[in-house]
Amino acid sequence: MEKLKKYGSVKDEDQFYHQGAVELLVFNFLLILTILTIWLFKNHRFRFLHETGGAMLYGLVMGLILRYATKVSDVGSGTVYECEKLKSGPSTLLINITNQVYEYQYKREISHHNVNGHQGNAMLQKMTFDPSIFFNILLPPIIFHAGYSLKKRHFFRNLGSILTYAFLGTAISCIVIGLIMYGFVKAMLHTGQLKGWEFHFTDCLFFGSLMSATDPVTVLAIFHELHVDTDLYTLLFGESVLNDAVAIVLTYSISIYRPKENPNVFDAAAFFQSVGNFLGIFAGSFAMGSSYAVVTALISFMHLTKFTKLCEFPMLETGLFFLLSWSAFLSAEAAGLTGIVAVLFCGITQAHYTYNNLSPDSKMRTKQLFEFMNFLAENVIFCYMGLALFTFQNHIFDPLFILGAFVAVFVARACNIYPFSFLLNLGRKKKIPRNFQHMMMFSGLRGAIAFALAIQDTESQPKQMMFTTALLIVFFTVWVFGGGTTPMLTWLQIRLVLVGIDPDEDLKAEAANQSTSTLDKNTTKAESAWLFRIWYGFDHKYLKPILTHAGPPLTTTLPEWCNPIARLLTSPSAYGDQLKDDDTDYIINNDELTENYGSSAHIPVPAQDRTCSTQATNKEDINEGDLGLGGYKLQLEHTAGQPQMNSLA
Amino acid sequence: MEKLKKYGSVKDEDQFYHQGAVELLVFNFLLILTILTIWLFKNHRFRFLHETGGAMLYGLVMGLILRYATKVSDVGSGTVYECEKLKSGPSTLLINITNQVYEYQYKREISHHNVNGHQGNAMLQKMTFDPSIFFNILLPPIIFHAGYSLKKRHFFRNLGSILTYAFLGTAISCIVIGLIMYGFVKAMLHTGQLKGWEFHFTDCLFFGSLMSATDPVTVLAIFHELHVDTDLYTLLFGESVLNDAVAIVLTYSISIYRPKENPNVFDAAAFFQSVGNFLGIFAGSFAMGSSYAVVTALISFMHLTKFTKLCEFPMLETGLFFLLSWSAFLSAEAAGLTGIVAVLFCGITQAHYTYNNLSPDSKMRTKQLFEFMNFLAENVIFCYMGLALFTFQNHIFDPLFILGAFVAVFVARACNIYPFSFLLNLGRKKKIPRNFQHMMMFSGLRGAIAFALAIQDTESQPKQMMFTTALLIVFFTVWVFGGGTTPMLTWLQIRLVLVGIDPDEDLKAEAANQSTSTLDKNTTKAESAWLFRIWYGFDHKYLKPILTHAGPPLTTTLPEWCNPIARLLTSPSAYGDQLKDDDTDYIINNDELTENYGSSAHIPVPAQDRTCSTQATNKEDINEGDLGLGGYKLQLEHTAGQPQMNSLA
């Protein structure tokens, strides 16, 4: 028989039913407001507030209202019952109350000092998501979309630099933040501010790793709208995408670092185990994600054989694409790997191979679907961040820690960008100029990933303080840096392709040449020397022909004795399609993906991009249109602002 | 201090984390299998198994595997703790176990005899959804899509008949099933089969109402693929859509019917209260759904004024459309109405007004988005139905009750279709022929709604028996009737528009004339006399001009003295757009919505439809294309299988 200590708490049952609806309605309302505001801003070409910033602002206001305008209705819910005989919490608990059996489901473990947080405003409690929602529902579409919309040609050309920033840079950033914070924490412990807290160096490193995930979504949206230099765009985007993956795995590896003895003493075994964990999880997630994408590519590839034509059923094709990509996430989670990382590499691989095999209709559908999911999820997260400042009930504001964090974050960003840029410039033919480096330094915004990593664990007091601090850094960087992007671009004299009204090719090419670019566009072909060339050669000769109907026939690329296998694996259309191959790299084009919601009516594509991608798209349309799509054909038209019907007349 | 009775149950905590991933992975796997199978079937033009039937089959097999191939791992989880001091269950419960506080969340109330169901296979338990997921997550997109894709012209023309079948027919069906089942239950009680059960007439009526929700998704898919007569299609589709709404509200009204005294004696007051509830909830949900749609229409309408152009940002437009439609559902739920009914009428109204205001890109996006959500949700539900036969742990199979239910369902369907068709034929100019009536009788499939209504409450034994029986009826009707649709159409000699290869207009018109149709296509304009005409007149003269940029200017339809207001409300483009008005009714075209995933390469649209909708779409493209869409224009092309590039050359 157990004893139960009870402080009394009675909850009206009727409230359970419609509870979720009201919360979701609040979010819907905030998102609707955000959309209407952004619409207004876009009309007036205000660029200082991106939709994510707007969502955060509305969330903040709503949080303020919920906090101070709703009454405390659930007074006595901080009741703790004692149960001595159980050794751990069962997943479901059946409780007999006045002869009714109620079923309770395990939610989480909470620490004793947080029990008080459960007293108080019921509405605030209800507006608090389960942190796992961020990782399992909201982040995957955002990350997949990032991978799927990676501008591949530029990405692979800058692969070396991007990997350096993302891996080494993030590691450095993590360590620098960890060291600086450790200094501050030592000082705070010395002054007696954190009396009785356990705050080790690993906790500081944990904070360092979660604060190393940059998320320059605002900056990238403005870059895109203003057509800032593609290499700068790619460097920043590529870095932010891969750096998320690194930061997530790094945070996880640090959180499971358990030295055997004194936690303040370096334990080599535990350290190497953490490094091993990091490498294992990263590699495993990478393999899981890309293998699902390869399976999708193979299935969708089959549509060219005469037996089956999946591309005739875009709905089935889209469904399969969606389900297999999601399975990549779920399988990684189920296998104890990192789903987010898996889904990122799945997205990149899907874009590289599967996308080429999809019917034009499915290309459009998948792009729009993930774009839409990304849009919603991103705004929900930023909205929730605003809300969390007031609705989260265990904030710990510590001015010294916050000051330290701000200093640490900027110093760490500088230690990432400047030294590595210097080193990279030694090897790069096309240098990263000073103003680009400053812009990258400036674009070290923190966003959704840092927030999601911080909110995952808010049980102990150090973690709560970290969460509060992370939230404030996100606010500051998104509003101040995000809002300051346009002035910064002007100040740093970074080349913008002029937004002209005339869609004429020559004029724009001229504009591009007259621009203040410090880079010679014509030398780009020879960049990112060996890494890119090795990868490209292998991919072009073997992977593309096997997985897509692009590339040279395998019979020409494989050694003679492999001919029987090569003939089996080569798509019959590969022989005729050799011309197309050069273009297939460009067909996932970020311009296509976002320009139809990102900006105003006339968006000239940067001159060089335009030539390539337009040709690729049109060629594809002609070639694949012949497959017959049930009288329903989507056509991408790239002549800005000119309806096709008119141009025919 | 409370006493806790404890039987012991320890659950490994590590399992919590990756648990959800495995379950979802199983569903993903089943859906992927379903898609691959359907793809194969479509290739071979097998029409006897629709994707929903396939999903159900795979679910069944997976359920069988889970049931008999997984080991019993969670032996002692049927533990009931006693808690005397609490008066009702709090929403969250904090429990102190070995000095760790665990948080538990209220899930549901369960009755004592079901406690045993909690013992046993942990995997089976985990594969069991919370029933509210069906109503809050899976059904809304399905129902919204149904409303959004309603073929409006034919729907309004047959409005009287559809309303008769849906309202009166469903009521009759509910009563007939209730009466027959009551007879069977009486007999079973008499033979002592249901010893000690409480089984009132209201329970039988409850069963009757939930079994009255028809869901001929399989039949409609085949009708669509084979181009069966549009009026038959519309009658069936319209009936099934509205009848869901009626059945849901009816079930709810019956479930809250509480006679004061003996539950077997008729209580007039309680009865009229239930009728009042029914009417109130139905009208309230209708109002809620359509008012959100009207708000959306007004917002999207604003894009024609010079200040703001929402249509330039299809993403924002789609987002707004999605969020406002979802808000209709949530608001209705929060207000204690029926969200499903609200979302249905929201869909219908969105299609009627808002759709006309959307940019071509958003039209495409919203259609594809909801089509995709419908596809996934439908297959998940049918998959789950298959699973539930083996994973649900409280089945009660009673042969007599099942027999009774089968008899009752078919008799009730007959009592709905034949008498009402007879009565309707007295008033209809275009009679519903005998073979159509037989086909409608045959198409009384039960599906997602009946299942969702039955699984909502499986606490008492009668409800468990009803759930089991409902499940079997769904299986039987989907497989047998769904699979028998094509033979039945042939047997009943129902006109099919021949599927020709030549997309030429005249040939198809000829084919249509040569077909065995008993209806004269040319008289359709004069059908559904007064109800349709009154509504159409009002809608055309006042609502369309106010809410869309179609229809005649208000200045011509309103009386002279209203001119100032009329001028204010009329869209500037309305004056020039009078020609377009006749077509706007047709632009949500079910062919467009599904043909790109429903069938093979050459889908000739029925002759009459084709002329109208093609013109409408093209005209729209030209007119709205001028607004400029950021160099990215979607174009719907209706010339079956002919790529446009070729036709230009």
Automatic annotation (TrEMBL), chains A, B:
GO CC term (a single one): recycling endosome membrane
Positions of transmembrane segments: 20-41, 48-69, 133-150, 162-185, 235-257, 277-301, 335-355, 375-394, 400-424, 467-492
GO molecular function, one term: potassium:proton antiporter activity
Main subcellular localisation: membrane
Alphabetical keyword list: Antiport, Cell membrane, Endosome, Ion transport, Membrane, Sodium, Sodium transport, Transmembrane, Transmembrane helix, Transport
Entry membrane topology: Multi-pass membrane protein
Entry's Gene Ontology BP terms: regulation of intracellular pH; sodium ion import across plasma membrane
InterPro entries referenced in this protein's UniProt entry, alphabetically: Cation/H_exchanger_CPA1, Cation/H_exchanger_TM, NaH_exchanger, NHE-6/7/9
Subcellular location: Cell membrane; Recycling endosome membrane
Pfam families: Na_H_Exchanger
Ranges where the Cation/H+ exchanger transmembrane domain occurs: 33-491
Family: Belongs to the monovalent cation:proton antiporter 1 (CPA1) transporter (TC 2.A.36) family.
UniProt xrefs under PANTHER family: SODIUM/HYDROGEN EXCHANGER, SODIUM_HYDROGEN EXCHANGER 9
Protein name as catalogued: Sodium/hydrogen exchanger
Source organism of the structure: Pterocles burchelli
Gene that encodes it: Slc9a9
